[in-house]
Each structure stands twice: as C-alpha cells, then as structure tokens.
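User: Write out your own:

AI:
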Amino acid sequence: MIERYFKLSELGTSLRTEFVAGLTTFVSMAYILFVNPSVLGAAGMDKGAVFTATGLIAAIATIFMGAVARYPFAIAPGLGVNAFFAYSVVIGMGVRWQTALAGVFVAGVIFWILTVLRIRETIINAIPADLKAAIAGGIGLFIAMIGLVDGGIISANKSTIIGWGDWSNPQVMLTIFGVLVSFALFARKIPGAIFIGIAITSVAGLLTDLIHAPSALVAGVPSLKPTFGQAIFGLQDVFTFQMVPVILTFLLVAFFDTAGSLVGIARSGGFLVNNELPRAGKALMADSIGMLGGALLGTSPTTAFVESSTGIAVGGRSGLTSVFTGIFFLLALFFSPLLVVVTSHVTAPALIVVGVLMAANLAAVNWEDFPIAASAFLTVIGMPLAYSISDGIAIGFIVYPFLMLVTGRGKKVHPIMYALAVIFIGFVYVLQTNH
C-alpha cells in the first residue's frame, strides 16, 4: 500500500532509502528545535512551550506535505521571521507577544485565502526580483548580527557605537569556537552541519564547565499551556494601524521564504516540470497549515526548509521522506531537557551560519542600476542598523517607487508597489511619533 501510494518504484527509490533521507533531513534542520525557543524566549515566551509548538507544527506540516502533496520537503518555523517577531515587533515596537501571535494568525488566514484563490503569485510578482533578493540578504545580515550580539562577539561601544565584545570571556570564546567548527563543517559540505556544530559546541561547553549538564536526557513533553490559543486572545489588539505593516511583513516574508525555498529545492531535486511545480497548490497548502497551526500552538511563521535538499541528495524522492522527517520531530519532543544545554552562546553560531547563507541572495541584485541598487542597499542596511526587518523593508519600498518616478520609469512600477509605499510611509510616521 505504501509502495503504491508514494510510487516508490516509479520514482526509483525504496522504503529504506526514504527512511535514511527522512532522518538526514531531520538531522539537518533539528537545530530549529533549540534555536527557535532561544529567539522567541527573548520576547518573553515560555521556552518549553515554544519547543513543543516548534516540534509539533513541524511534524504536522511536514507530514501533510509528504502525505498529501507527496514531496520530500520539510516545513518548520523559519529563522529570520522569528527574529522579526521577537526583536522587531515585541522588543522593538513594544507589542505583546500574544498580539504578535495574533498578527501571525491573521497573516496566516490571509496567506491561506490567497493560496486557495491562487492570487498570491500576483502579489509576489509585483515586487521586483532585486528587492526580493535584498530582503532575503538583509534578513541574513540581521540574523547574523543577532548571533554576533547574543554570542558576545560584538557589543555596544560608546566611542564607535558598536565594536568587538570581550573576547577574553570564556562564554564568548565558546561562541567563537562554535562559529569556526560550524564554518569548517559547512566548508567540508558535511550533511547536518548546523546541528552537528551545535552538538560539538554543547559538548565543549559541558567539558569546560561553561554549561551545566541536564538533569536528564529524556523527559515528558513540555506543556503547551503558556502559549496555546494565545493568538486568539490577542486578536482584540491586533486590528490597529501599527499592526498593519507587521501583518504585511509576516505575510511578505512567508511569501518569499516559501516561494524561494520551494522553487530552489524543487529545482535542485529535479521536481520542476516545464519550470513549474506539479501539485504546487497542495505544497503551498502545507505551509499555510503550518502558519495557521503554528500561531495557535504558539510559534512564529513556518517555511519550507532548504535543508530538505540534504535528504533529497541521499536519495529521497517521494513524500515518504517527509513523513519520516515529521515522525522524527514527534520523537524529538521527548528530549526537551537538552534546552538547558543549548544556550544562546551555543545557538549563536547557527544564526551566523544561516546569515552567511542568506547573504548569498545579494548576488542577484542589479547593482549597476542606481534606483534598484539604492533601494536594495537601504533595505539591506536598514535591517541590522534599525534592528528591525520591517524598518528595512519600509525604507526600500518607499525609496524604490520614488526613484523610479524621478527617473521617468514610474510606469514600470506595479500599482501594488505604490500601495505598499503608502502603507509603509504611514508605518514609519507612526513608528517615529511613538518614539
């Protein structure tokens, strides 16, 4: 039955190969189980509950992807948008995390409607490819900066605004060690490099007494009670002008992450047919379910993980790969005691590595065309300097149509971009008047 449903023989794979592929994908992206609670924990959310929400929604969405869309693509809460949730919305704008979750839920509903009506491509296509690349690259710099700050590698400096941290601090040295190990693993193209880097850094911290050993290795699944359903309670505060660009950013980042990741994974795995992804609607529906379900459980938006390509590389060809990956996420829920071992100094290298990978998107920007280059540059530099993804997007989306107009190319700008510019002008005004 399994053989027939997933068409294993037709796809040139087997149950054993799909199992190994599912395990490989899980190991490659298991770091999100520990990094996501660390990031959202900075916003005041219960780390244990976030750990459970992360693993549970990753399992649900990934199994749906495998069983319904029948693709070996895994889904989980994404890095970048979780940083926007914690550092830009909750900490930067002073929004309660419950309200921020409600914003994710509303964005998820819109995302689901646009997916069902098949008009999400219109919105994505309205935004120039250069700005999409700039957003991805800027998020990479922002994530890397968070990692550098959390690890103590850089810190505030009265003379130069920012500078090196205290590298003589053993905890900072542990972070630097983790960065070097993770870089080396990636340079050697070792599958699961980020997860292995976290594991090696954690062991190093335990051996040097910089990290306290957990009281147990396996335990009961942490309760979801602190976060479950809080998105619904936060809806009463979500319908304000301040939250419009927040919801819009959640929606846009989810669009870009999902579209970019799915196309990239599908292209590398040879799943595209005439440059299109068969059953794309079902694949996008899996991500919609992840975003809506994640908000209700208590975590930031989900996305298709590029780490899925590691499972495909070892032979994963069917949705059974994703089903196995989802099962491994369920089993991982019993290892919550390891949260005390994976400290911010241990997860910081993972953020820096992901930042490097996302910065590669900047190569797609046309730096020879000044209106495009200036808009992209302000988008990229605005995120780490303002410590806000939405601020960076706002600046770029305001400057782009302006420069296109003054250079006589206003007609080449999609009307949606003008509408977004107006919305972001209002967002910047509200933001500045509230300072």
User: Anything to note?
Assistant: The radius of gyration is 21 Å. Residues 2-215+240-433 form one domain. The first strand starts at residue 75 and ends at 77. The chain has a mean pLDDT of 87.
